Each structure stands twice: as C-alpha cells, then as structure tokens.
Amino acid sequence: MAEANLQNTPARTQPNPKTRPKRKKIRSTDRLLAISFLLPSIVAVAVFVYGFIGWTGYVSLSKWHAILPDLSFAGLENYLTLFQNFRFQSDLRNTLIFTILFIAVVALLGQCLAVMIDKKIKAESLFRNIFLFPMALSFIVTGVVWRWVLNPSSGVNLLFDKLGWDLKWYTDTTIWPGIEIGKVTGGIPIALIAVVIAAVWQMTGFSLAMYLAGLRGIPEELKEAARMDGASEFQIYRKIILPMLRPITLSVIIIMAHISLKIFDLIYAMTGSGANFVTDMPGVYMFETTFRSHNYAEGGAIAIIMLLSVAIFIVPYLIHSRKGEQ
Amino acid sequence: MAKAVSRGTIYIILIALSLCFLIPPYVMVITSLKPFDDVSLEHMWALPSSLNFQSYAEAFDKLLPNLLNTFYLVIPATLISALLGSLNGYVLSKWKFRGADWIFTMILFGMFIPYQSILIPLIQFLRSIGLYNSIPGLIFVHVVYGIPVTTLMFRNFYANIPDSLLESAQMDGAGFLKIYRHIIMPLSITGFVVVAIWQFTNIWNEFLFAVTITTTDQQPIMVALQNLAGSQVVHWNIQMAGAILAALPTLLVYILLGKYFIRGLLAGSVKG
After folding, report:
1. Which of A5, A149, A268 faces B23 most closely, judged by CB atoms?
2. Which CATH architecture has domain A86-325?
3. Degrees, nearest 5: CA angle B178-B181-B185
4. pLDDT digits (tens, 9 = 90+) for B151-184
5. Interface predicted TM-score (ipTM) over 0.85
6. How do the domains of chain B map onto residue ranges?
7. Domain ABC transmembrane type-1, which positions (chain B) (predicted)?
8. What is the CATH number of domain B54-267?
9. CB-nearest partner of B178 from A9, A38, A287
C-alpha cells in the first residue's frame, strides 16, 4: 500500500538519468533535514540529562544547605560528611542487601516460571497473566497494598501466628547477623525482606517475559537432536537452555539493578525510612533532605552517588551492546 | 509415567505460586467492598458480609480531581513523546550519519539515570520558566525524559523495515518527509501502539516527578493515593478502593492490550 501511494506522487515523473547529480544534492538536503529533526532531541538530552547532571554535581560541591542558594565551593565536604553519616551508611547497607536479594529472586523465580510455563501446559496464558499483571501497576499501588497485606498486627500474620511464628515484617528492627561496621550494624535488615517480597511480586513478570522470549528463541530442533542422542531433560536444560539464556540473565540483572538502586516510590509508600533507618534508601534520603530540609548540597551529593552506582555497570553494558550491534 | 508425575509437580508449583501472587488483589478487592465496621484486623481474610460500594464512592470523591489531572497529563505527554520517538527512531535507523550510533548511545544513557540526579536543576529550571507546579510542566518533563526510551523502541522497530523499500522510494524522488509520511508512518501503527501503551503506563504510574514538581490541586493520582494512604484518618477499605481506582486504567490497558504491553517491555530492554 505504501508503494502504491508513492507511485502517485509527481516526483515519479522526473526523468532519472539527468537528475543524477541533482538527486545527490536532494539527498544531502534530506540528510540535513534528517539531522535537523533529530537536533531538538539531541539538544534536549544534552541539556536536560548531561547538563543537569553537571549542575547537580556542581551543587553537590557547594555550601547550599538552606532555601537560599549558596553556591560557594565546599570541595568534597558534603561527600565526606555523608559517608560519616549513620543514615547514609545504613542506606548503603540497605541498597546492597536489597539489590542482591531482589535481583536473585526475580531472576531465579522468573526463569523457573518461564521454564515451567514453556512446557506447553494447560491454561498457559492464565498463568502467564497472573504473574505478569503486577507489572502494569504503580509501585505506589504495590506499596499501599503490601503494607496492608503484611501489616504486622494482622495480614498474613494471622496465619503465621497459628504456626507459632511472630513475624513483624517491615516493623522488625533486627539486623541479621549483626556485625558492627563503622557506625551501623552490618547484615540483613529483616524489615527489608517485606519490601523484597513486594518488589518481587511486582517485577517477576518482567523477567518471566524476558526468559519466555528467550526460550521461544531456542530452536526446537536443537532440543530434539539432543533428545535423540539420549540426553535427559535435565541435561538439555543445563547444557543447552541455560547457556543460551545467559544474555537474557545479563539483561535482567542490569535492568533490575538500575531499578533497585534508584528505588524510591515503593519504600515511600510501603514503609518509609523505618526505625533506625532499617528500610531507608538513598532515593528516600535524597528526597527528604532536598525537599523537606532544603539541604540541596547534601541532596545533590546523594544523587551523584546514586548516579555513579548505576553508571558503573550501565555504561559498560551500553558500550557492549553498541559493539554487539556492529 | 515419570513425565506425568513431573507434569503434575509443575501444575502444583504453578498453582501454589499463582495463589501467592493473587493474595494482594484478593485482599484489595474484599477489603474495598467491606463496610467500615467490617474492616478489622482479625477478619482481614474473610469475605465481606455484604457488598458495600460506599468506600468506592468516598475514594472516588477524594481522588476525582487527581484522576482528571493524570488524564490531562498522560494523554498529551504520551502522544507527543511517541511522535518525537518515531521521528528520532526514523532518523537514527534510516538516515544514519557519521556518529549517529554514538549519539544514540548517548541518548540511551538518559533512560537509566536515577532522576534524582537531575531533579534539583530541573525544578530550578521549571520555576524560572513558570512551569513549576503545573500539568504542562509535568508534560514537558515526561516528554523530555521519555526521549531515550521512545527513540530506542522506534529505532528497533524501524530496523525491521527493509532499506530497499526506502531506496526505491528515493529513486522515485521521494525525500525525507515524504518517505516518513507515506512509507514509515503506515508501517508504524504497531510501533505507535506499543510505545503509546508503554508511555501511558509509565507516566500514569510515575511518582518522583509528580511528587516533587506539583503541589496540592495540580497533583496526579499517584501522589493523591499516597497522601490518602499516608493519612491516619482514612480507613483501609477506602485506601484499597482508592488503590483499585488508581490502578484500573493501566490494568485495563494490560487486560485489553497485554500483547503490546509485553512487546514494549521486551523492546525497551533487549537491544540490538
């Protein structure tokens, strides 16, 4: 249909051989036109992404600690005080623990579900949709609902109470195993597990969809040939499927990691910072110090640390996929 | 025999996990349908004694202005950013110039940054141009920071349109815009649906920009829901009804157009 449209355009009637040099000219004006259409976006990204990051970096090196801007140079002072700070040290511990638990469960659960759902089972799409629909929801909705479901004085605890377990979920202040590092207690804050459950509920669909797409991409003949050679289903899984899913795992890890490192809304809606900051995250700290306490310099420093933590693996990933494309 | 057993195990595991995943919607729906006296910690799991839509009426009453705000925000932001992404993707896939791939990678980085790292200058900027605390301000923000993902999706999408189609059109003297209008656009319907659903869902659900750029009567639904849930005086049945109302539009999109939603999810994550 598209071609038919084009044939009706007057351009068609132009004699071809004569216009050869002219066409080259047209093409170069076209090229200019193409770049000029892209230009606003390039400028926007240059200013609003790179320029603004630079400006945030500048703020993070300043003495802007109140509503009125004070951009005099403070050096790395804001960063140094941050790393001394109990709340920020807690945040670093929480982010690390949360990211590891969250990624591990999402990747593993998503992969297991995908392998099971890919086995041509009945009601396949029903199962798929049950695991996928939370993806369409906001972290705010997820947070509000899970705060109610895991409410320590009710929720699923009414079931666990009968088993003799007294779970405090996100109000638990225990840190396990509790090793003193600097000012904070190192280990897994038990309260974070509740947040991990909510985040896993929301994001497993993502990794499930990615793994399913990966599994569908593995040619049936490959598995069939292995079966002919007497390979068991488990061997096929280990020797063929798993290696072929490796690039998917990499993508899942990268995407989940950048979501987890900048997480803000889920914590904000579900638990807040928690007692002793057991569920605090840099995103929440940044928001509160900047927009509640007007400590812009400190907020800027947290933001830059968050950015660096994401950039460390996103930049190599982007360069890697750029090379893979060529 | 062994196969039947393993199949049985698969069903048992899947059903058990499905039940776990359905806990939140179950609790949400039954709580929202309970009258206030019925909402108690001990009877959290019990079905409501009678259906009661009062909490929906109350939640709707409280959230309606914010729901409207979000519609005013989401519709233009989605349309503009899809159009922009389409043009960018067209240029970056079919009119490659020297350094185009590097520019694309530089643009793409913008999709992964924590937005906290641009928030302080962004708010200063919006204040200076008078768009702070306004829906147009939020539209602008979502269009700008939507550029990377929409460009990526369209660029990947257009990579599947054969270059020969464009070349023959060029032979016929069609230029940049004519090719876009007559060849690319008609072939982009699916691309537009995928990108629009993706942007609609993301902007609808977004919270950080919404909570920092708007106050009170300009606030989108997610900020209002968070305020509703955060206040001590609002009861659980109303909170749950509010959460359902806030989730309904994106949920409906997922139910009706789930296939495209998943395509967007994959297009936005798997590169090259």
Report:
1. A149
2. Orthogonal Bundle (1.10)
3. 145
4. 999 999 999 899 998 888 988 888 999 999 999 9
5. yes
6. 54-267
7. 67-257
8. 1.10.3720.10
9. A9
